[in-house]
Amino acid sequence: MDDRKKRVEKYVDIFMGKQRHMLPIMFLLPFFPDDILCYIAGVTNISFSYFLLLTVLTRPWGLLISALIGSGMLSFNWVIWMLIGIVIVISMFISIKYGNRIKLYIIKTFRKKVGHNEDI
Question: pTM, whole model, 2 decimals?
Answer without folding.
Answer: 0.52
